[in-house]
Amino acid sequence: MKKSLRATDTIARLGGDEFAILMPETGAEAAQAAVARIRDSFPNTAMSNGKPVTFSIGVMTNDCRSCHFDEMIKAADALMYKAKREGKNTVRCSVVGPET
């Protein structure tokens, strides 16, 4: 995942197989492009290690200074579970703030 992101981005493991990626000063379009790069490269890397995988992603873009981190994580988590219910290996996105 790190190879698909900028040096200013941060990846953190939330638990189990759940991760969060913080991308400062990144709008919805750029965040979706970064996630697309990860989605396209990750299965190939996993398969080269003999581990077939799928993954589901929830993307929250926040351009709202009054939004709380915990709320954003909960919203992204809900989007991720929606992606899982809709067939896995998909991405669901939402924007909070002036971009909406």
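^ that was protein a. below is b, sequence first then the tokens
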Amino acid sequence: MDLENISKLKSSPEMWQRLSAYGVVKNFKQDDVILNEDSYIKAIPIVLKGSLRVMRTEEDGREILLYYIKAGESCIMSFLGGIHHETSKVKAVAEEDVEVLLLPVDKVGVLLKDFPEWLDYIFKLYHKRFEELLEVVNAVAFKKVDERLLDFLHKKSDNTKSKILSITHEQLANELGTARVVVSRLLKQLEINGTLKLERNKITLL
């Protein structure tokens, strides 16, 4: 759990009490879909434990990872879509077993009126996500696939706090928005170079 983010969220005891009263705490298993694309947003997910990955799916079924949501954070796309009664443009999936506070969208405005710190929380999230999305655009536009692959593996390792990653070549290809055969070839080259070790549905960073 990211204690710093959680403590910031709880910095106003009254606001946290209201969030807890309005929201419903639910637990999800790894790879459960918390928010689907094109579905109406009824509740804003605030992660209490674990992490979510936020994806964008193209028409051909390929997906690309946009960012992770860690403990104490929420999905700014959910805020914007929920407030404007629009369907979701992204998919949020449990990266690991997670505990999430689901805040009804009609309570977002109420909290904005009563707590300036809630607005500050949303603006800070917006700023962070905007920077992360710029990184994605930069990587897709200017980096080679092998660089993107290695960056992705290190980011996933940092997020899970483990050098051992349980992921298939197909999943990697989907999250990078490329072909599985390309990912497999690059992973084999990285193994030859001594950067990682490949096992069935598992990658160990060395």
